[in-house]
Amino acid sequence: EGVGVMAASDAAHAEALCGRDTGGLALLGLAPSAPSCPHGPALLFVKTSQGKEEGRRFYACSACRDRKDCNFFQWEDEKVSETRLAAREEYNRTHQPSHTHGQNVERYKNFVLLPVSKRRFCQECQQLLLPPEWEEHSDHQLLYDISTAQLQSPSQLLYPLENKKTNAQYLFADRSCQFLLDLIIDLGFSRVLSVGTPRLHEMIQSKASKEEDFRVRSLLLDIDFRYSQFYTEDEFCHYNMFNHYFFAGEAGLETCRKFLRQGNSEKVIMVTDPPFGGLVEALASSFKRLMAMWKDTDKEDPISQEMPMFWIFPYFFESRILEFFPSFTMMDYQVDYDNHTLYKHGKTGRRQSPVRIFTNLTPRMIVLPVEEGYRFCSICQRYVSSGNQHCEICNSCTSKDGRRWKHCFLCKKCVKPSWFHCNNCNCCALPTHACEKAAAGCFVCGQAGHKRSTCPSLSRS
Ligand code: SAH
Ligand code: ZN
Ligand code: ZN
Ligand code: ZN
Ligand code: ZN
C-alpha cells in the first residue's frame, strides 16, 4: 500500500499534465432538496467520461465512499413512496449513537469521580464503563485503571478508525502536532477550530487543564462520535465536513458560531486534516461556510479578509485546493503521522511524507524548523525544504516533494527528478508511463532499435 500512494499520485499527476481523462464520478454538490442518510443530507453525483456527464444523476452518502459503511443511494429523478420514506426515517433514527452527547457528558462526570481502580474502558465497544455496566461487558476486552492522563488523550485510548474509504484516522506524530501548536501560538492565535484534528484538540485541551497561563482554546468538529465521551458540548461538535452537517442541529451550529464569535474573532484559526480520499469540492464548500460563519461574527466592524486556515492535505492536491481557494499557498513542511508507516519524515531515514500545510496566511510568517533542514528563500519569501532549489528559470523554489527537481526546457517548468521528457506524449513523465504510442521503442523518440539511454536525439542536444 505504501508505495502505491506515491506511485498512484505520480501517475495521476502525470496524467493530469498530459491532459488525459480517465473518467469517473463528478460531484454536483449539496442540493437543497437532497434526501438524508444517517450522515445528513446526501450529495448529488453523476458519472462522467472524457469530462462529460453521462447517465442519470444520483444521490449517495456524503461521508462514506464505501457502500459497506452506508449504502444510501437514490436516483435524482426517482419517485420514493411514502412507505419507503417512512422506513428511511426510521432507519436514520435507529442508526444514531446509543447515547446522546448530553448523556455521555453525564457519564464522564460520574466516571472521573470513580477511584482509578474502578475506571474501565471497553475496547470492543470503545466506551468508558460505569460499574453497573461491567457485567454486560464481562467477556469483552477491557482496559483497567484508566488514569487522568489517559482520559486527556482519548486519541491514544480509542483505536484509530483506519477504514480507508470512510474515516481514515491518521494521527499526527507528536513532533508535527507540537510544531503546529507552537506555530499557532507564535502567530498570536488563541482559538483553534479543530476540524478533524482530534490530536491537536487534545494537546490544546490537555495543556489548558495543566498550565494556568496557557490561553489557547479549541473546539473539535469531527464525525467520530466516540469523542463525545471525553468532551462537553462546548468542546466537541459531532460534524460532517463533507456536507457541513451538525448532527445536533441548531445547537451544534450555535456552539460553533459562539466559539468563532467569542471575544476577538481575529484570534481564530481553523486547522483541518480531512481524509485524503478526495471530494475536495465538498470539503471546500463546507470550509467556505465555516469561513462565512466567522465573517458574520463581527457585524459592526466587518472583517475584510478570510478566516485564517491550515488545510493539511497531500501536495498532489495543490491545484485542486487552489482552484477553490486561490489565496492559499502550499508550505513545504512535511506533516508526519504516528500510525501511517508511509507518511513519516525523511530525515531519519524513513520515507518522506507527501502531506503539506495549505494556508491563506502570508507564507513568510510560517517559520519552518531549521533543525529539520528547512531554510528561508529570500526570493520566494518563504521557508522551503533543504532539497528544494531555487530555479532561476521558473524564478521559484519548485520542488513539491522535498527532492531536488529539474527544469525541462520543453515543458518550460521544473519536473520530478525521476521524470523524462516523452516526445510521444509531449510532456514529462515516468519512464514507465503508459505512453500514447505504447511502442516497444525508445522512450524519448519512439523509434525501435534503441533505448532511452542511447537515443541519438539526446546526444545531439
Ligand atoms: N491528523 C489528525 C487526524 C486526521 S484523520 C490528528 O491527529 O488530529 C481525519 C479525521 O477526520 C479523523 O479524526 C476522522 O474522524 C475525521 N473525519 C473523517 N470523516 C469525516 C467527516 N465526514 N466529517 C468530519 N470529520 C471526519
Ligand atoms: Zn450515510
Ligand atoms: Zn526560492
Ligand atoms: Zn524550472
Ligand atoms: Zn518535459
Automatic annotation (TrEMBL):
Protein name, entry field: ZCHC4 protein
UniProt key word Cytoplasm: yes
Domain CCHC-type span(s) in chain numbering: 442-457
Domain GRF-type residue range list: 37-79
Species in which this protein is naturally found: Indicator maculatus
Cellular component per GO, a single term: cytoplasm
This protein's UniProt keywords: Cytoplasm, Metal-binding, Methyltransferase, S-adenosyl-L-methionine, Transferase, Zinc, Zinc-finger
Main location: cytoplasm
Localization (cell): Cytoplasm
